[in-house]
Write a structure and sequence with these properties.
Blueprint: H1 15-18, H2 32-45, E1 61-62, H3 66-76, E2 83-84, H4 101-110, H5 121-124
Length: about 130
């Protein structure tokens, strides 16, 4: 059996990503700049001989988040049957949803966390989240 490749395009900019805010399950649309980013990358990434050849796609799975859905439709239009799955949904940032890293550090200090060390999302996780 031939190996299958998996490609996960990154979505375009939202207001929160532009401002450095952690975005998990909050529904945000792409900004005008985000839509331009996706369209510009589509010209380079999508098409015959590029990273994503539409004619070679065996299946398409997309996060249920608006920004992911918008990114997909800007890249590919409505030509594919898409499986929307929460398995691809963004991380649950819990109490840190919508905060910047600096705000998270301050909140964690207020809660008596990370005294003597800096927060690491991969080691420390998120309060009330993953």
């Amino acid at each position: 059996m031939k190996d299958k490749d998996s490609v996960q395009p990154i979505q375009g900019q939202t207001e929160w990503s532009q401002n450095g805010r952690y975005t998990g399950d909050t529904e945000l649309d792409l900004t005008a700049e985000g839509r331009e980013q996706v369209l510009a990358s589509a010209q380079v990434v999508v098409g015959p001989g590029n990273l994503i050849d539409r004619n070679k796609l065996a299946g398409v799975f997309v996060s249920p988040r608006q920004r992911a859905q918008q990114t997909f439709h800007l890249l590919f239009g409505d030509k594919f049957q898409v499986t929307t799955t929460s398995e691809l949904a963004e991380w649950d940032y819990g109490a840190y949803e919508g905060l910047t890293t600096q705000e998270i550090h301050a909140l964690r200090r207020e809660h008596g966390l990370d005294l003597g060390k800096q927060w690491n999302i991969w080691e420390d996780g998120c309060e009330d989240g993953e």
